[in-house]
From TrEMBL:
Provenance organism: Myroides profundi
Cofactor(s) required for function per UniProt: pyridoxal 5'-phosphate
Record protein name field: Histidinol-phosphate aminotransferase
EC number(s) reported in the record: 2.6.1.9
Domain Aminotransferase class I/classII large: start-end pairs: 42-342
Organismal lineage: Bacteria, Pseudomonadati, Bacteroidota, Flavobacteriia, Flavobacteriales
Length: 348
């Protein structure tokens, strides 16, 4: 496979290139011991000190768990922060553009709008997979800076074709962001393994889904050291709290528990698929490599309302994919209650 050597410097916004980042006294003095009178902190208390702005201890632990290098990692307040930053680093407002493959994760559009970046929505095919030909007209356009590829894709649940992604990675002259928020539930290797081959690749992962820490807000963005340096320049200095960093380090120790819960959720997913397929109100259950199912109903709005009446809340995605609900996999008990409710609705 040929390497796609991109001149990153040429892609970065001029004001970001010229930026000198905020430097704290602790950037200059690296020692652990000392009398710290530099940051107007209060000497009393338990969370009185500012946290490590580069989260080095947490990055060590995450790198061991995920198999990447700590110096190729940016940590954000959720991967949503990384999505926002990638627009701010590369896209000049009202000039540059980004590609997404629809239907997909809504936050790419939200942050494009926030940053006044034009989004080019290109359709996935009927199997919700990539059709590289639709990208052809944009490959040489220097104002198209970013391409978001969500795999496994939200809300459809499927992995996108590896060869098609490789073709795009090799030919696109901008930054390719592969969002692997659900990779822990899938049976394919992460694109993290391919990082060394493409200096324009950013792999997004999160502790919110497979690791069950959505409340902590920790997202990972893996990329070349050169790219990491731009993220570090632009981010808020203390974007992850000390409590967040310590709690994540603690929870990441339990890899056995993590694997056990993933296995259980996958078994529950497969059980739910079988149950759903037996209902006459269900038209189609999309294949899923995630912890949710996109389900097509005869009348999704009606089923959605009926479930709400039974205090079961799912996500109505009918505006994005006709007549569909997206259902997260819950505990065995919760899934059984969902099936019981749907069977009742099916009989009505
Ligand atoms: C849930 C999700 C995220 C993760 O968001 P966090 O900000 O890390 O909680 C990112 N991408 C996709 C596609 C998601 O579904």
């Amino acid at each position: 496979m040929s390497n796609n050597k991109i001149n990153i410097n040429e892609l970065v916004r001029p004001n970001i290139k010229a930026l000198s980042p905020y430097a704290s006294a602790k950037d200059e003095y690296k020692g652990e011991k000392g009398i710290f009178l530099d940051a107007n902190e209060n000497p009393f208390g338990t969370v009185n000190r500012y946290p490590d702005p580069y989260q080095l201890a947490l990055k060590q632990v995450i790198s061991k768990v995920k198999g990447g290098k700590p110096n190729q990692l940016f940590l954000g307040n959720g991967s949503d922060e990384a999505i926002d930053l990638v627009y701010r680093i590369f896209c000049q407002p009202n000039k540059d553009k980004a590609i997404v493959f629809t239907p997909t994760y809504a936050m790419y559009e939200v942050y494009a709008d926030v940053n006044a970046v034009e989004l080019i929505p290109l359709p996935l095919n009927d199997a919700f997979d990539l059709e590289p030909a639709v990208v052809e007209p944009y490959l040489e356009d220097p104002t198209v800076k970013l391409m978001f590829i969500c795999s496994p894709n939200n809300p459809t649940g499927n992995l996108l074709d590896r060869n098609s992604i490789t073709a795009l990675l090799t030919r696109f002259k901008g930054i390719v962001i592969i969002d692997e928020a659900y990779i822990d539930f899938s049976n394919e290797p992460s694109w993290l393994e391919e990082l060394a081959k493409y200096n324009n690749l950013i792999v997004l992962q999160t502790l919110s889904k497979g690791w069950g820490m959505a409340g902590l807000r920790i997202g990972m963005a893996w990329m070349s050291e050169e790219l990491v340096s731009y993220f570090n320049k632009v981010k808020s200095p203390y974007n992850l709290s000390s409590v967040t960093q310590e709690e994540a380090i603690k929870q990441l120790q339990d890899t056995a528990g993590f694997q056990q819960r993933i296995k259980l959720l996958i078994e529950e997913r497969e059980k739910l698929i079988q149950e759903l397929k037996q209902l006459s109100i269900v038209k189609r259950v999309c294949p899923s490599q995630t912890n949710y199912l996109l389900v097509e109903f005869g009348n999704a709005d009606k089923v959605y309302e009926a479930l709400i009446n039974k205090q079961i809340i799912v996500r109505n995605r009918s505006k994005v994919v006709e007549n569909t609900l997206r259902i997260s996999i819950g505990t065995s008990e919760e899934n059984n209650q969902l099936i019981t409710a749907l069977k009742t609705i099916d009989r009505e």
